[in-house]
Amino acid sequence: xxxxxxxxxxxxxxxxxxxxxxxxxxxxxxxxxxxxxxxxxxxxxxxxxxxxxxxxxxxxxxxxxxxxxxxxxxxxxxxxxxxxxxxxxxxxxxxxxxxxxxxxxxxxxxxxxxxxxxxxxxxxxxxxxxxxxxxxxxxxxxxxxxxxxxxxxxxxxxxxxxxxxxxxxxxxxxxxxxxxxxxxxxxxxxxxxxxxxxxxxxxxxxxxxxxxxxxxxxxxxxxxxxx
Length: 227
Fold this sequence. Notes:
Blueprint: H1 18-26, H2 29-32, E1 36-38, H3 39-51, E2 56-62, E3 72-77, H4 79-83, E4 89-95, E5 101-103, H5 106-132, H6 148-153, H7 156-174, H8 177-184, H9 196-205, H10 211-225
Parallel strand pairs: 2-4
Antiparallel strand pairs: 1-5, 3-4
């Protein structure tokens, strides 16, 4: 168990109004939910909406790894492009190769919107981190990882970005920062569906008492109360 006093940390901030972007995506619901639309139209709808809030490219691709009638998101932040004042973000919508059209339910669309905005926020956090160090390269880890997953998830930038994502997931699952924080006091009890990002870290580091998990959890708690 962790006490609340253990969670006092500082963290980077991003320049994105999540609530506004969600409202903008909500405005697409009548065009998308339960309507069969071409993947080209779906991509264009999102491109118009996202580029009004984020300096980004929105493209599409196909992969057999994607289930039919679903959409996956691949997101990138290009630090070199950002430093050169080019478009810093790319968001790729990935469809099943057999799909020329999709028809999304209200439940799936709600899930997708949150996944999309979480991905955008994750990459914008990396931009904020790059700006804070004046674009110098940073690949440092809190500790040397014993596995490939630990080496990746132990990077300072990833710990912070995934902690922010985990906080958003917990807020959606529990409805308030207070309820989420209470659940977070025993992270091993939190189901993976309530915070996939937390689940990634628990699987990578096995125990909430792992040094990197302690840092991660402190940052999650910070983001719960500092949106």
